[in-house]
Design goal:
Oligomer: single chain
Largest sheet: 7 strands, parallel
Helix content: 40-55%
Bound molecules: NADP nicotinamide-adenine-dinucleotide phosphate
Structural class: alpha/beta
Number of domains: 1
């Protein structure tokens, strides 16, 4: 029984059709930024294992080539600096001429930690450029394609526990991740009528290369990126009419020495 259209001008869905359907990932198309290492690499790997074609974006081409060697043709490495707005817009335009993406994972991000009076302004700008400006470039280029897609689509933004609580030496990183949370909440409300779910993930510490740049220190009980990827897959596979807009995750014993 068709109850009525829930979505805006692009999508026509019935409430009954939405109610009983999980997103079947097999055959979907995803864009993952920051796919060359850390959680982005595990997101890409787990999505490919589910039958998703993944456009994995990052700057280090050699890392993307290694991923292609291990994941096969369903992983398409895209060497690109997403802080370059025209590169992002050109790539999006030329890539999706006859297909449409279903999933966007805004994952690429960077942190630089330090007291505010020691934080070089170029590090502040790098965080704002990648964690915020680039997210805007990618999202604003991809959302029109998600709107055109007839199926329920999903955008997942990777913030951080640093987007929910401030900490000494993290002011710049905190500022960008709090802002990403606000961006996500606004888009969740703006895009739901277009059949686009928006989820913001707020992870605590994960064992990745992140601290190599940030100047933080890894500890023995950080979360594993594969476990964070399991959460991503679970969120994506929920029924179409089931929206998880925020999810916070932490190690149970962050300070425990093991
Ligand atoms: N690790 C943690 O404890 C933790 C906790 C909470 C949230 N997060 C967030 O999780 C996300 C992923 O971080 P991670 O921990 O997996 O660290 P990571 O291993 O350093 O991954 C960062 C990714 O971003 C890519 N990237 C950096 N600059 C880029 C640019 N200009 N254009 C395109 N791609 C770029 C990097 O690839 P290239 O260098 O090849 O470009 C890399 O693939 C970040 O948003 C981070 O803030 C991390």
């Amino acid at each position: 029984m068709v109850v009525g259209s829930l979505f805006g001008k692009y999508k026509k869905y019935s409430i009954t059709k939405l109610g009983d359907k999980n997103m079947d990932l097999n055959g979907k198309i995803a864009i993952v930024t920051g796919a060359s290492s850390g959680i982005g690499a595990d997101f890409a790997r787990r999505l490919v294992q589910k039958g998703v074609t993944v456009y994995g974006i990052a700057r280090r081409e050699e890392k993307l080539n290694e991923m292609k060697s291990s994941l096969g043709d369903q992983f398409i490495g895209v060497p690109m600096d997403i802080t370059d707005e025209s590169a992002v817009r050109d790539w999006t335009k030329k890539t999706f001429t006859s297909t449409l993406p279903d999933i966007l994972i805004n994952n690429a991000g960077i942190g630089f930690f330090g007291n505010i009076d020691d934080l070089p302004s170029d590090q502040w700008h790098k965080m704002v450029n990648l964690n915020l400006n680039a997210v805007f470039y990618v999202t604003s280029a991809v959302v029109p394609l998600l709107k055109k897609n007839e199926h329920v689509c999903h955008m997942v933004n990777i913030a951080s526990i640093a987007g929910r609580m401030g900490n000494p030496k993290l002011s710049g990183y905190n500022a960008t991740k709090y802002a990403l949370g606000g961006f996500s909440d606004a888009l969740m409300k703006e895009l739901r009528d277009d059949g686009i779910k928006v989820t913001c993930m707020y992870p605590g510490s994960i064992a990745t290369e992140f601290n190599d740049h940030a100047g933080g220190t890894n500890h023995p009980n950080m979360m594993e990126s594969n476990d964070v990827a399991t959460v991503l897959i679970n969120i994506l596979e929920m029924p179409d009419n089931f929206l998880i807009d925020e999810i916070v995750m932490r190690p149970l014993f962050p300070k425990k020495k093991s």
